[in-house]
Amino acid sequence: MTVFVNGRFATQPVSGVQRYAGEIVRALDARAGAGGEDYVLLSPGDAPDAGLTNIEQRRVGGRGGHSWDQLAFARAARGGVALSLAMSGPLLHRRQLVVLHDAAVHRRPEHFSRRYALGHRWLERGLAGRARIATVSEFSRAELADVLGIEREGILVAPNSADHARCRIDDEACGRFGLTPRRFFVMIGNLSANKNVAVARRALARIADQDIRLIVIGAAASCLKMDLKSRADERVWLVGRIDDETVAGLLREACALVFASRYEGFGLPLLEAMASGCPVMASDCAAAVEVCDGAAEHFAVDDDGALATLMEQALVDDGQWRRERIAAGFKRALDFCWAESAAVLATACSQLENA
């Protein structure tokens, strides 16, 4: 059996979806042949080298985009099973598995440009009628079943992991940014309204100590509606995209990760923070509660007063709270594994070949 993996994700800016796709491909590369599958990564002509050991990478067609999915990828994958890991796939391929990470374009269309939301709602409904669907959490499984009108039991769950965050750390990151350990908080994500930097900014304004900083790691995305007010707040530092080692270094020295999202399918930064030894303060959105499973402090999504109280507690902590939160986070992060999620997807691809 040949499984043709959709490699268009490698031409896109890296967010949680692209991270997922890249880590799953690396996990499949490590297990290639273990289940009798033959994998081929099909990439657009402008995709970088994937650096794989066992999986062949073939470049087909021109530049990436939705038309590449529907034409070049569909044509090149027609002799086998298609595996698309990043919220899109060819509508006319008869044997395929598509990972839809959330139902955000259906539940929160106001967070996207109108064109993007309409297009992806149409695409996802089309895929639901033709492909096997997988997702990353039980919450997203229930959401997708509802909005797409398919059986919940028919949707696979292959979660994110944070294995990649355990072996990369820059010990000098804090100093290079001019930050004092335990005197700053970190947020990770694109600068969209959904990530809710606004509630963290309001919470920070309640803290009297003017030296406390909020470090926001991420960049703008053209398909999302941006939160621009935080750009004018001198206590909120927007540092853009930085490498994994630097992120891990900042997380290790931060007071906590602040995860304030209004809606998520999973929330990968939660696990990345836990694996890096950083306490987590998360909104009470359903996916965050599921992923953290008691290993984080939670606050109501718009309650800046509650978040400020948590931040102040962390700032005056004598060490006990931090040790307990870090230990709980390490334990929870170990419940997730890229190799296990890759195995779930590989098994599903085998079933499609035999269907």
Please provide a written account of the structure:
There is one protein chain. 39% of the residues lie in helices and 15% in strands. By secondary structure, the chain is of the alpha/beta class. The two termini are 12 Å apart.
Distance from first to last alpha carbon: 12 Å
What is the average of the pLDDT values? 92
Q: What is the N-to-C order of secondary-structure elements (H for helix, E for strand)? A: EHEEHEEHHEHEHEHEEHEHEHEHHH
**Strand content range:** 15-25%
- Overall geometry comes to globular
The major sheet is characterized as:
7 strands, parallel
> What is the radius of gyration?
20 Å
Binned, the helix content reads 25-40%
Give the class-level CATH name of the largest domain: Alpha Beta
- The tally of structural domains comes to 2
Please identify, by name, the CATH architecture of the largest domain. Answer: 3-Layer(aba) Sandwich
- In total, the number of strands is 13
Alpha-beta content class: alpha/beta
Question: Top keywords for this entry?
Answer:
355 residues; alpha/beta; Rossmann fold; 7-stranded parallel β-sheet; 6-stranded parallel β-sheet; 15% strand; globular
Lay out the secondary structure.
Blueprint: E1 2-6, H1 16-31, E2 38-43, E3 56-59, H2 66-76, E4 81-84, E5 96-99, H3 104-107, H4 114-128, E6 132-135, H5 138-148, E7 156-157, H6 173-176, E8 184-188, H7 197-205, E9 213-217, E10 236-240, H8 244-253, E11 256-259, H9 268-275, E12 280-283, H10 286-292, E13 297-299, H11 304-315, H12 320-333, H13 338-354
Parallel strand pairs: 1-2, 1-4, 2-3, 4-5, 5-6, 6-7, 8-9, 8-11, 9-10, 11-12, 12-13
